[in-house]
Amino acid sequence: MCLAVPGKILSISGDEPLMRMAKVSFGGVVKEVSLAYVAEAAVGDYVIVHVGFALSRLDEQEALRVLEDLKALGIEGGS
């Protein structure tokens, strides 16, 4: 089973839209993520991430709710 999880963008590098990368925090675990699919993403945004790619932006309130649900299921850190 695959799971896409929300994470918060801490920093972004790269200027070319298909090459932009971000450091994304998943409950304290920081991973490097491609922003190729979400060109409008900015530092502070929450994004849904699957296999190293941000797929869409997510409202902060919804992201926090999902993270709490994952924590309740025993899936902390989201990755």
What level of helicity do the residues show?
10-25%
SSE arrangement, N to C: EEEEEH
Terminal residue distance: 13 Å
CATH class: Mainly Beta
Characterize the largest beta sheet: strand count, sense, and whether it forms a barrel.
Answer: 5 strands, antiparallel
The beta-strand count equals 5
Number of domains: 1
Portion in beta strands: 35-45%
- How many helices? 1
How would you describe this protein?
The protein has 79 residues and is of the alpha+beta class. The protein has one domain (5-72): SH3 type barrels, CATH 2.30.30. 16% of the residues lie in helices and 41% in strands. The chain is built from one helix and five strands. Strands 3-2-1-4-5 form a five-stranded antiparallel beta sheet, covered by helices on one side. Strand 1 and strand 2 form a beta hairpin. The chain starts with a strand and ends in a 7-residue tail after the last helix. 24% of the residues are buried. The mean pLDDT is 89.
